[in-house]
Amino acid sequence: MNNNTNSIYKYESVSNLRNLAEAKRIFKTKSDLMPILFEMMRLLTTASSLEKCNIKLNDHCFGLTLSKDEPRRFYYFRDSKQFYSFNNPFDTSFIDGNFYFSIDSMNLDLDFEKILLLENLFRLTSPFVYWPDNLDSNYRTIPKNQMNFWQFEQIFIDQCEQFSLPELNDQENIQKWWNLIYMLLTFEIGYIRYDIDPEHEKENHPKNHFDINLSNSVKFGIKQNIQSSEFIHFLNSKENVYYIKYK
Questions:
Q1: What is the full DSSP assignment across 163-206?
Q2: Are strands 9-12 and 91-95 parallel, antiparallel or unpaired?
Q3: By C-alpha distance, which of 210, 168, 177, 191 is closest to 34?
Q4: CB 79 within 8 A of CB 16
Q5: What are the pLDDT digits (tens) for 135-162?
Q6: Most exposed of 55, 64, 150, 179 (fewest Cβ within 10 Å)?
Q7: Residue-wise pLDDT tens digits, 186-198
């Protein structure tokens, strides 16, 4: 697949991702989406082992755009009636059939093991924002919204030991990963979902619609169904944009 405008790398969803990405019909918080983001990253670092999808296929697929001419976004296509997308906060490249994630401004590469480390760090340090139900009880003594750098440092050292990454255990890397966690906690995730939902159709809930944002979402009705390729094009602000026709 060529890396050009309006291109998307698209793969069949595997069971772990499908369980996460289809656990809810509607996502309301960033914490709902982050495990999906990490799972997509892990899968794409071994993308050469995945089955590619045709762009017209809608069911149980996921992917991302990579071209520098397009917004960097992840996509999930649940079926022909629901697609959703959110921002990819990482620098991404495609080499020899696999994807490579990094934060170039931090000179930080994220391979499979480091993505696992990142997900665990995010889960354990997320008392900045919320208490996940599965938070390790060893860390519940940290007051919500009050974790400081020194507390993070101890968690980071523990996790590097657990993931057998002792080479990261120095002050430069601790600071770098602290900045990375802060970036993930604060970046705009840019969630948008397309639904065909005749069961709940009413005046303020159109059958075909977009929901934009997670909490306090904004709903836009459209008059006809769209395909996955049109959804991708709709989100590409670098090409001719669609217009909303009011009544």
A1: TT-GGG-SHHHHHHHHHHHHHHHHS----EEEEE-GGG-BTTB-
A2: unpaired
A3: 191
A4: no
A5: 455 544 444 456 678 888 999 999 999 9
A6: 150
A7: 899 999 999 988 7
